[in-house]
Amino acid sequence: MRIDQDSDVPPYEQVRLHFAQAIAARELPVGAKLPTVRALAADLGLAVNTVARAYRELEEAGLVETRGRAGTVVSAAGDRGRERVVRAARAYAATATEVGLTADEALEIIRAALMV
Fold it and tell me: What is the DSSP string of 10-73?
């Protein structure tokens, strides 16, 4: 992972996004242990609080869980969340088809919704 100091995206968000994408892509499987906050902060040249904020937001989203001294690991809840999104996407696709939207129109609606 690399932090782009020139990016408009704050460093904590870059960290959060990196892990969220890796979890979504299943590059980090359920139970995978994340580096400690202090170790990752040192590796990336960031403040401990910056990495802690990213981890806190990942935990609030249900993607990871902190197990005290055992550290922070990828949560099974994140996998279930992905399954919920897949089910919702299938339902949306069925509705979009039913009302006669083209694939491009349906995708444009999703893109707009994600920008909120």
Answer: -HHHHHHHHHHHHHHTTSS-TTPBPPPHHHHHHHHT--HHHHHHHHHHHHHTTSEEE-GGG-EE
State the pLDDT at residue 92: 95
Give the structural domain span for 61. Answer: 11-74
Q: What is the spatial distance between Cα 7 and Cα 84, in angstroms, rounded to a whole number? A: 32
In total, how many domains does the chain have? 2
With a cut of 50, which residues of the chain have pLDDT below it? none
**Residue 95 falls in which region: left (phi positive, over 0), alpha (psi -120 to 50) or beta:** alpha
For residue 3, being part of any structural domain is answered with no
The answer to the question of residue 5 being in a domain is no
For residue 27, the model assigns a pLDDT of 92
Q: Is 74 helix (H, G, I), strand (E, B) or coil?
A: strand
Assigned token pair, 23: 């979890």
CA distance 57 to 43: 20
